[in-house]
Design goal:
heterodimer, A: alpha/beta, two-stranded antiparallel sheet, 29 helices, globular, disordered N terminus, B: SH3 type barrels, five-stranded antiparallel β-sheet, Fe-transptr_FeoA-like (chain B), iron (chain B)
């Protein structure tokens, strides 16, 4: 893996080697082509942001570089800037396009051709074309664009050998007709057609490094290019029939609230059934109980016992209650891995099917109320996989204000897969009514905090503008591959973290610090949350990794109410060290510190409210109703307050305009 | 009229899109001022989904309120 700048200056590159760059719209299949060409693994992902790390590999003596999926190279966001910088220095660009969506994808193709770089087009997913009732005249396409076009089905490796063989004969294509004559003028000054093109398209950074002013021909060039692409489409793509309408109908149903919300609910229910019941119950029962605790742990204790006495301090650190060798592996491999793999399987299915942008459209209206737009649902959903990774994808949001709100809510209310997995396991044991209450409380906190942030932060939410890709059946191989590699990455990251965490806790336990911290936190845990004092350990562990904290609770045999209070508090509690580091990196010291402090306060306040309401209630079911009412009530008050606030603001604005 | 007033299934011509940023983004998706598009779906109080050939784009409601269209 190397960053974009490393990619430009790869040190061990042979002198005559070529730089082959893969470019394309999101979800076009670049990464699959990349894997084929280089034989190196790269994460196959749908969304810009998730492939922000640039991968590079070797093809013979040449170097192949993957770029993030973009709709153009116009500096609208980080991905486009990275893609632009890599493409501008490429010797050959392999442009992977989705054959079904040529109207959209060829815009980028034509923009790359306009830079003058040699291009080969991989006309990917050609097998879908017929199913959609289309026919493409490939020869005509080659002729008009002036570049080699190779039909491929990347996931089935069809056409990829031809693609590879065609690389040496790549050549520059036909640029968009009638581009402003200013292009030639600037080309002379910069000595590069590509740089000149981006300058007339108003790219600040490129103009700056050439010591030139930007030109404002962006729209003119875009319209000319659009017209040219439409012309190409008219001459090469033909409708042969109706094609499949089922996916179109289903796609529509996912967007409309009347059908979309039930579909989402059913999917979430299936998720709960599979992960919370089947995996958390049966699978984990076998992996954690039978395999790890039944076979692995006794074996380790016996082996360690030969070397040091088990009740010595070293014995306790290695194999005690929080043993580095016992707890680490039982938790990571026995408890978390099956659950995390389950979550990644569902996430990969979502990504591959094109469902995510449809959820974004469905929930847009709701997110506007908390200062975001539908696009923000993408980092939120990815957050259920891993909050750290999702925090990075907040970059796809367009304003600082949105990134700020999204990243805070992500750290606060979104439990990551590992954490959610253990939460599902705890909920599975305390019952569906607590699950509903848990969901309700977390949702209300999301609404209240989001609404307040929307009021407090200056500015307005930006509007949704999102492309809805075709809904399609996920490719099972792709999904499994993604699930496997993500689960593997999780295990690799979790084992050392858990080991260090177990070591710290063991040392704390042996030195008496643990007891001291438990006493210190007692006013919070016992007084405010009504929990046993030992739960403090779970909170301390939760700072290392959140799931670590929840996993700690799992072994504690708490009453249902205690279980509910602790999972609510732990969910809202500070995110794991890795995400905190990312938040600091993305948002700066001052802002991140405020966020970090804020999550502590909110977590214990909310947990405290739930615990206190239960202890004030006559009985458990009365308590459940009271908690639900309190949180729904607080949400409604916040929403009313926000509505009044925005009305007043609008009136004030109007008055200012009038005067 | 504005795009948010369109009904599902109606075809319209886009007259003007307010911000240059939005204009350039939709050109890349395949939709420009002066083009004929069809309303594929409307989410109640939410986004308006516009379709041109096989390309679908969701416009947030307040964005749709700023786009001028004429019915065809």
């Amino acid at each position: 893996m190397s960053g974009c700048h490393d990619a430009n200056t790869m040190e061990d590159l042979p002198p005559c080697s070529k730089k082959i760059v893969l470019a394309g719209n999101p979800n076009a299949g670049k990464s699959v082509v990349f894997n084929f060409l280089t034989g190196m693994y790269v994460d196959v992902s749908n969304y810009p942001g998730t492939t922000l790390d640039i991968s590079s590999g070797r093809l013979g003596g040449d170097v192949v570089i993957d770029t993030p999926g973009v709709y153009g190279i116009s500096s609208f966001n980080d991905e486009e800037r990275i893609a632009r910088d890599i493409i501008l220095t490429a010797d050959i660009v392999i442009n992977v396009v989705n054959a079904v969506y040529l109207e959209r994808d060829l815009f980028l193709t034509q923009q790359i051709i306009d830079t003058g770089v040699p291009v080969i087009v991989a006309l990917n997913m050609i097998d879908e074309v017929e199913k959609q009732g289309l026919r493409i005249d490939v020869q005509k396409l080659e002729e008009i664009m002036g570049v080699i076009v190779i039909p491929t089905v990347a996931v089935l490796k069809k056409g990829l050998v031809e693609l590879k063989n065609a690389i040496p004969s790549a050549h520059s294509g036909n640029i968009t007709p009638n581009l402003p004559c200013k292009l030639k003028e600037i080309s002379m000054a910069t000595g590069s057609q590509a740089e000149a093109l981006l300058i007339i398209e108003g790219d600040q950074a490129v103009a700056c490094r050439n010591c030139l002013q930007t030109e404002s021909f962006r729209e003119e060039v875009y319209l000319l290019r659009r017209k040219h692409v439409n012309e190409i489409i008219n001459q090469t793509v033909f409708e042969t029939g109706k094609g499949s309408t089922f996916s179109t109908t289903l796609g529509r149903m996912m967007i409309k609230p009347l059908t979309g919300i039930p579909i989402l609910a059913v999917i979430l229910w299936v998720l709960y059934e599979v992960i919370g019941i089947v995996i958390a119950g049966n699978v984990v029962g076998f992996t954690e109980g039978t395999v790890m605790q039944g076979i692995y742990e006794p074996a380790v204790r016996m082996a360690v016992g030969y070397v040091v006495p088990l009740d010595s301090w070293l014995g306790i650190i290695l194999t005690g209650e929080f043993g580095v060798l016992t707890m680490t592996f039982s938790y990571v491999l026995g408890l978390l891995l099956p659950l995390v793999a389950g979550f990644y399987l569902f996430l990969s299915l979502f990504e591959d099917s094109g469902y995510l942008p449809r959820i974004a459209t469905l929930v847009d209206r709701l997110l506007v109320g908390i200062g975001l737009n539908g696009r923000a649902i993408i980092p939120m959903i990815l957050g259920f996989g891993c909050v750290t990774m999702a925090s990075i994808t907040t970059r796809l949001l367009s304003t600082e204000r949105e990134k700020r709100i999204a990243i805070f809510l992500l750290g606060l209310v979104i439990p990551c897969s590992a954490q959610l997995a253990v939460i599902a396991a705890i909920i599975g044991s305390i019952g569906i009514s607590y699950a509903a209450l848990y969901g309700l409380v977390i949702f209300c906190v999301l609404v209240i905090v989001g609404t307040l942030l929307n009021i407090l932060l200056p500015g307005n939410p930006t509007d949704l503008l999102i492309d809805l890709p075709p809904l399609r059946l996920p490719r099972i191989g792709n999904v499994l591959h993604k699930t496997f590699t993500k689960s593997y990455a999780f295990t690799k990251e979790a084992v050392p973290l858990f080991a260090v965490g177990a070591l710290i806790i063991s040392v704390f336990q042996l030195t008496g610090i643990l007891l001291f911290l438990q006493k210190m936190m007692a006013p919070l845990t016992v007084g405010c949350l009504n929990l046993p004092r030992e739960t403090a350990t779970a909170f301390i562990m939760g700072i290392v990794r959140r799931d670590f904290g929840v996993a700690g609770l799992n072994g504690m045999h708490l009453s249902p109410v205690d279980g509910l209070v602790s999972i609510i508090t732990i969910t809202l509690f500070v995110p794991c060290i890795a995400s905190i580091l990312v938040i600091f990196k993305e948002r700066g010291k001052k802002e991140a510190t405020i966020m970090w402090g804020g999550t502590w306060v909110i977590a214990f306040t909310v947990g405290g409210i739930v615990a206190q309401v239960f202890s004030a209630a006559k009985n458990i079911s009365h308590g459940k109703i009271m908690v639900a009412l309190v949180f729904i009530g607080m949400s409604i008050i916040t929403i009313i307050f926000s509505t009044v606030f925005h009305r007043l603001k609008a009136v004030k604005c109007l008055r200012r305009v009038e005067s | 009229m504005k795009l948010d007033k369109i009904k599902k299934g109606q075809t319209c011509r886009i007259v003007s899109i307010p911000s240059q940023d939005i204009r350039t983004q939709v050109i890349r998706f395949g939709i420009a001022e002066g083009e004929l598009v069809c309303c594929a779906e409307i989410v109640p109080a939410g986004p308006v989904i516009i379709r041109k050939n096989r390309q679908e784009i969701a416009f947030g409601r307040s964005l749709a309120k700023q786009i001028d269209v004429v019915l065809n």
